[in-house]
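Usage

Read records sequentially. Each one opens with the input sequence:
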Amino acid sequence: MKKRIIVTLFILVGLSAIPLIIGIFYLYTEAEKVQRSIFVNEVLTAGNEVVNRIDATIKNDTTALDGIEAASLDQNEIDTTNVISIQQSRKFLIDSVNNQPIGVIKSTIYFQENDSRIIANDTEYFTAAFRRLFPLYNEPWDPKNLQNDISNAFNIKDKNLIQLDSATTDLLSAGRLRLMITESLKNENVDSRFDFALFNAFTSQFVVEPQYTQPDKVLNSEFVFLLKYNEKVSSPHYLIIYFPTVRGIVLKRMSNIIILILVFFIITFTVAFVALYSLYRQKKTAEVTNEFINNVTHEFKTPIATISLACEVLADPSMLGDQDIRASYVEIINDENNRLKDMVTTVLETAQLRKGQIKMNFELIDMHELIQKITDSFALMVNSSNGTLNVALNADNHQLFGDRTHLTNSITNLIENAIKYSTNSPEILINTLSDNKNFIFSVTDKGVGIPQKAITKIFDNFYRVPHGNIHNVKGYGLGLGYVKKIVHLHHGRIDVQSEEGKGSTFTIYLPLKINK
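and closes with the structure output:
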């Protein structure tokens, strides 16, 4: 599969994901709006319930004047000798025509020892300017309108009279209001951290100040409730409920939806990534397989051509009388046939390794003896190339359990590579060491080396370091993959250190004790 096809598919997947992301984001925003609307309605319902409870609490105030049977006297006429406590109350005088306060009755209640009560009343009427302009706040709540010019038209006495009396202020304490608000919010399934305040819009002062939040933030809250007017509350008082993180509350409520969206995104992008990665791997596998086929074809051509040429010579009638020449050509055919057999065997063994079907026959092996035997077989080849093959058998412990055949093939493969990838006369060092756990075997050459970007791939099946179409080094990319698999089947590992143009060192670590 060509690279541009992979890129095109990747772009198409990305483009198809855009409307999907937009659609999911739109659904999420709509769901957030719905959840926010539900939360706002719940808070509004709870706030209105609190306002009703405040109104009922004020009307049931024990300091109210209704039902008090006592003498009404001037305050200067009262004998306070037997008085044990004093309470004060206030009741507005309402103009029944205009439904506006025209004054206030200030009452002082004296409780005496004989359970009798004496009330001293003091009636004050508001100024004409005050009556004309009151009530001030018929418009919706707006903190910016708190400072207004008409407040200068009121007397200080009028302002003081219009405030809540001390008894009502004590009745609407911060603790009682918080309890009312908490209970009402829980009734609406709202269990979130909040702050609150009770604000007199006429005097621009807090009756109950916020406990945890800056006043300016509380005044800008979207949850503001006007207390009901009654004999105790005649000026506009607002109950304000403030939530520090409304969006956080909404997101917490949407946690299940958010998790599902995230899971959906993860699954979608994982599937897309896996699909694209699979296509990429297929592309790379196809390239490597094609290269392997080209290499195998090239390797097979030489023995096939040699056998074909030898057969043509043997078929020549003039060669029938020369038995020595016939024997030499028969020997050539036999050698090339064995070479083809070895190639096929290597390919089949690699296929068995990949499927895990290869059988290991473990036995006690003297690795020094095995290595010496293998290096002796290569001595003539190296010497004929004016090279050197040095062997340093320095391991103290060199006996282990392993498969003799596959270890022989693996060591042979490393030495063959060291010879093949030496540019001129090969210089090869074979060294052994041991520690408490491992037998260590290394093959070092001063050949062409391996590029750093190819080191991680050289153990892949069919992989060969790319050199274009040049086939001066025989092979088809199965050797190192085979070596690594055999080493792993012995519970060992293989490392490589290489620098391009300076040579390579392959090191095998085999455990001295493994399960047979």
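Summary fields computed downstream for this record:
- The domain at 359-511 is CATH 3.30.565.10 (Heat Shock Protein 90).
- Confidence is low (pLDDT under 50) at residues 62-72, 147-154, 468-477.
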